[in-house]
Design brief:
By secondary structure, the chain is mainly alpha-helical. Helix content is 69%, strand content 0%. The protein has a domain at 46-90.
Length: 111
């Protein structure tokens, strides 16, 4: 459980860094509102996708035995894991210089 909390915290910190990295001081307030809204929407879409996927793969509770239920849950979780891995591809569009103004990387490479 501690590892899951650590990974969620790391994800939130990384996403917030990217959200604010290229904003000027006057844009920060609007950026904060947009970033917060997008984070809440992504959580909502994730919950809805998980519910829908589970509903598709888990058989009717009244007609299924425990083996079918477990198989359906495993299939749903595997598919959700695959979608999660594939969604990481969106970060491939980032350029090497994105976020450089909040990073000490430029100091390490040029200094």
């Amino acid at each position: 459980m501690a590892v899951a909390f650590f990974m969620k915290s790391l994800d939130t910190t990384g996403m917030n860094t990217l959200a604010y990295a290229d904003l000027t001081e006057p844009q920060t307030n609007n950026g904060s509102s947009i970033a917060s809204t997008m984070q809440k929407l992504s959580i909502s879409f994730g919950v809805a996708t998980a519910g829908l996927t589970t509903a598709v793969f888990v058989p009717n509770l009244d007609a299924a035995n425990s083996t079918e239920m477990i198989y359906g849950l495993h299939t749903a979780l595997l598919l959700l894991g695959l979608v999660t891995i594939l969604s990481g591809g969106v970060f491939r569009s980032l350029k090497r210089s994105d976020g450089s103004n909040v990073s000490s990387q430029k100091l390490l490479h040029h200094g």
